[in-house]
Design goal:
about 150 residues; eight-stranded antiparallel β-barrel; 9 strands; mainly beta; binds manganese (II) ion
């Protein structure tokens, strides 16, 4: 796992986002950040192998079963990003406001991200229960839904 793509996209003398490092922990945390950028979206991030595996979910992670949402995988983020909220300045990558919409713990139940299909459990304030992430043909596109 590396943060090269994350770090290459950002100027850390301009943005207040963490530069971060790969940091392994025994925790399995998740966060959803509401990101009012050029287009409002929700960033869904799962802590795994020292980074945050990350997806931009235009319509947000569903709170109830029966709704499938597109999730576009984006570059791995540093684990320190899990606590990030604030304003990314105009002109910088991802310019806009970031607020923490939900956070908590997650647990893999079946499958794995590397295999393109994973069932997992979320224990957050808003998001609770069993979810599926499944990769579509174009590799960066996934579906996320609650079961
Ligand atoms: Mn975003």
């Amino acid at each position: 796992m590396s943060l090269e793509k994350y770090q290459a996209k950002r100027k850390f003398d301009k943005t207040i986002e963490p530069k971060g490092e790969v940091k392994k922990s025994n925790l399995s945390r998740f966060v959803v950040q509401k990101h009012r950028a050029s287009h409002l979206h929700y960033d869904f991030r799962l802590e795994q192998a020292g980074v945050l595996k990350s997806w931009a979910v235009p319509k947000g992670v569903p709170e109830s079963a029966g709704v499938k949402r597109l999730a576009i995988q984006v570059e791995d983020h540093p684990v320190d990003y899990i606590n990030f909220s604030g304003i990314i300045p105009e002109g910088e990558y991802g310019a806009g406001t970031v607020e923490i919409w939900d956070k908590g713990k997650w647990q893999a139940l079946d499958g794995a991200l590397e295999r393109g299909s994973m069932k997992f459990k979320l224990s957050g304030k808003k998001l609770q229960g069993e979810y599926v992430l499944v990769r579509l043909k174009d590799k960066k596109s996934w579906l996320i839904y609650k079961i």
